[in-house]
Every structure is written in structure tokens, then in C-alpha cells.
Write a structure and sequence with these properties.
This protein is of the alpha+beta class. The protein has 2 domains: about 5-65 and about 200-235; about 70-195, no CATH class. It has helices spanning about 5-25, 200-235, and strands at about 35-45, 55-65, 70-75, 80, 85-90, 95-100, 105, 110-115, 140, 145, 150-155, 155-160, 165-170, 175, 180, 190, 190-195. Helix 1 packs antiparallel against helix 2 (about 200-235).
């Protein structure tokens, strides 16, 4: 394959990866706390034979949108949403993870957990325990939980030190390899959950653009293949 073919193939590979990301966004348009993702294309230069440089396109960077999703009122006393910056801190078997999905429920042991059973952590990284007879659980704007007028803990709201380096795990969970820091003035709302921040209309529009770009690239590769075949036939005839 000639240089033009390799360059076109690298672009096709990137477009296919972006199409997969867009499809995942659309599929999670109704998932609570889901963060929309995009693909960033960059140039990759490789030295070729004869000392010439060949530029390829690389779509290796995924950009996670931190835009605020719509806050939907549920009235549930264990449903929480963050208005503004920050993530809930939850514990998993693989370590602490971040999430904006705030639909929690008490476990059999009395700790607040996600639908997957991951405990919600407090500001110190410990699971939050709710007394079994707590019927008047209240959450202040700073995340402090109280019942019967007595504080029982504070929800851990943190921000990643490097937001662009967040790694998605399990749909609504993120890993922050560069560490996190507490949000100084968190804004936690009880009885609300944050909807996905995916804009389905824009995603469908982008999907059409990517599909057309992919088809154009495929046409170019077909034409290039025919040109090479014709050149080989002329040499052998």
C-alpha cells in the first residue's frame, strides 16, 4: 500500500472510532449522570523511506464533557445531584472512583450505595452510614447529612486535578489517575438527579457528518486501488 493509502486508512480508523463514541453517547442519552464524550484528532508524523515524512491522522484522545446536565426533581430522600463543579466520590473494588450519577439507596448494612452496590464516600473517604430508622434525612447544600437535627456525615464532593485525563469506567464511573481535590463550596441538592448531558440532536447531526466523511474516504481508497491496479497492468503488459 502506498503512502496515500496508509494516510487514508488512518483517517478511516479514526472516523470509525468516533462513530463508536457517538453511538455510545446516543445510547446513554437517558442514563442518569452520563457524561458526553468526543474524539480529538491529532497529527502523527512518521519518517518514511527516502527521508520524507508522512503525516497520519490519529484519534486517540477522548474528551469528556463536564457540562451541567438537567437536574430532574424526584423527591427521593436518597437522590442527590451536584449543581456546578464536582463529582461524588464512591468506593469500588478497584479503588475510589468519581461519578455524577446521584441515585443512591441504603444497603442491608445501612450504607448508601449506587445501583451497582458501590458505597458513597464521605469527605474523608469512608462509607456513609444512615441509621435504619432515619425517616427525616436532610442534606445541606454543602453535602452535610443530618437526621433528628444531628449531623451524621458529609458527602464527599471532589474535583479531578486533571479533568482532561479522566478515564471512563463502567459508563458513569471515572478514574482520576492524577488525583482529586475537595470542592471548596459544593452545591448538593437533595431530591434531584442529574440527567445525561448528551444532546441527541447534535450527536445525530455529527453522526451523519462522520458517516459522509467515512464514505468519502472509502471512495478515495477505492479510486486509489483502481489507479494502482491500472498502473500494475500497464507495467506487465
Amino acid at each position: 500500500m502506498e503512502t496515500a493509502g496508509y494516510t487514508a486508512l488512518s483517517r478511516q480508523t479514526g472516523l470509525l472510532r468516533e462513530m463508536q463514541v457517538i453511538a455510545n453517547n446516543i445510547a446513554n442519552a437517558s442514563t442518569t449522570g452520563f457524561r458526553q464524550e468526543g474524539v480529538i484528532f491529532s497529527e502523527y508524523v512518521q519518517e518514511a523511506a527516502g527521508g520524507q515524512d508522512v503525516a497520519f491522522s490519529a484519534a486517540r484522545i477522548r474528551n469528556i464533557s463536564l457540562a451541567q446536565g438537567t437536574l430532574n426533581q424526584t423527591g427521593g430522600q436518597f437522590d442527590f445531584a451536584i449543581e456546578g463543579d464536582g463529582f461524588f466520590l464512591v468506593g469500588t473494588p478497584d479503588g475510589q472512583r468519581l461519578t455524577r450519577a446521584g441515585a443512591f439507596s441504603p444497603s442491608a448494612e445501612g450504607t448508601l450505595v449506587t445501583p451497582d452496590g458501590h458505597p458513597l464516600l464521605d469527605a474523608g473517604g469512608a462509607p456513609i452510614f444512615v441509621p435504619p430508622n432515619a425517616t427525616d434525612l436532610a442534606v445541606a447544600r454543602d453535602g452535610t447529612l443530618s437526621t433528628d437535627g444531628r449531623a451524621i456525615g458529609q458527602i464527599g464532593v471532589v474535583a479531578p486535578l486533571a479533568p482532561l485525563n479522566l478515564v471512563r469506567e463502567g459508563g458513569v464511573l471515572f478514574r482520576a489517575d492524577d488525583g482529586v481535590e475537595p470542592v471548596e463550596t459544593p452545591q448538593v441538592m437533595q431530591g434531584f438527579v442529574e440527567a445525561s448531558n448528551v444532546d441527541p440532536i447534535l450527536q445525530v447531526a455529527r453522526m451523519i457528518e462522520v458517516q459522509r466523511a467515512y464514505e468519502l474516504g472509502q471512495s478515495f481508497m477505492d479510486s486509489e486501488d483502481e489507479r494502482i491496479r491500472a498502473a500494475l497492468q500497464s507495467f506487465t503488459s
